[in-house]
Amino acid sequence: MSSPERFRRFELDQGTGVSVSFEFFPPKTDKMEASLWSAVQRLEPLGPSFVSVTYGAGGSTRERTHRTVERMLTETRLAPAAHLTCVGSSRAEVDEIVRAYHEIGVRHIVALRGDPLEGLGAIYRPHPDGYAYASDLVAGIRRVSDDFEVSVSAYPERHPESPDWSAEIDNLKRKVDAGATRAITQYFFDNDLFETFMEKVRAAGIDIPIVPGILPIVNFETTMVFSAKCGTSIPHWLARRFAGLDQDAETRKLVASAVACEQVLDLVDRGVTDFHFYTMNRADLTFAICHMLGLRPAPLEQQAA
User: Fold this and answer.
1) CA atoms within 13 A of residue 113's CA, in its CB half-sphere
2) CA 96 to chain centre
3) Which of 56, 75, 79, 91 is a plausible cystine mate for 50, CB 3.0–4.6 Å?
4) 183 has which bridge partners?
């Protein structure tokens, strides 16, 4: 990943050369709806390359995802990407969803296999009439319309179901060969793992952009539980940073901001310029990190143009 042309954190100037994108999830309640749109309004002026909206297991948030994406198209200047999974739907149903997105103007889909209906850790069983895996879904999207940008997932620490690195890289390559144009990684906290992963990916001849997924930690205990299920390791140094802060929310927030800023700025030093933030529908930490990357809200006249 080293390059003589790369710039470092101290050379960042108004975000020059840095590209960011944000992930949101569709709200379930009026309170969550207000929180989502507050975050969207706060982050939109930073000019993300796109924003993605997640899709629940088995299509459990299908309608809410569609409504959120449609509202972003009509009420903001954002370029929304709709998540789509294989789980719980036939090929015909998935194809119809893809066509519906195309009709309202969506041109970017995040294609995922998806978690089993029973949740992480359960055995995945493809729908008998559906797309079995993400590579099949990517190919199906391309058959519906070839003018979609298609992002897929990547795993710097291997997918929990991958038996070895050879299988992991082969799976990513199948998605690329099917027509994926970008990969977004599962979040991670050890940048050395990401750099090693990138060496494996490039050695395999995979040359699409691989964008690191960054998770600003809102709740450390919840992050530990979810990380154990999805295969993301928690370094000892990270656990020590949050130790003893269970009853100190203000300090936890400051530590979370410092940890995430430290991670992204170290990645900049390693030559990374694109970042995808898992916002958890909150803007504060993500906005602070983007500020450290040199990004600033566009002037109001530019936002209205």
Assistant:
1) 20
2) 24
3) 79
4) 152, 210
Alpha-carbon distance 147 to 68, whole Å? 22
* pLDDT (0 to 100) of residue 63: 86
Residues 21/277, Cβ–Cβ less than 8 Å:
yes
Q: Say which DSSP state 45 is in.
A: G
Q: Are 209 and 183 in contact (CB under 8 A)?
A: yes
Running along the chain, 305 residues long, what does each successive block of 10 average in pLDDT?
A: 55 72 94 96 97 77 89 97 92 95 97 80 81 97 97 97 96 98 98 98 98 95 93 96 94 95 95 96 96 86 54
List phi, psi (to 5°) of 53: -125, 125
| Residues 279, 258: Cα–Cα separation, whole Å | 16
Tokens of 267: 């990645």
Residues that are catalytic: 23
DSSP category for residue 124: P
Do 210 and 185 form a contact (C-beta atoms < 8 A)? yes
Q: How many CB atoms neighbour CB 164 within 10 A?
A: 9
Residue 57 DSSP one-character state: G
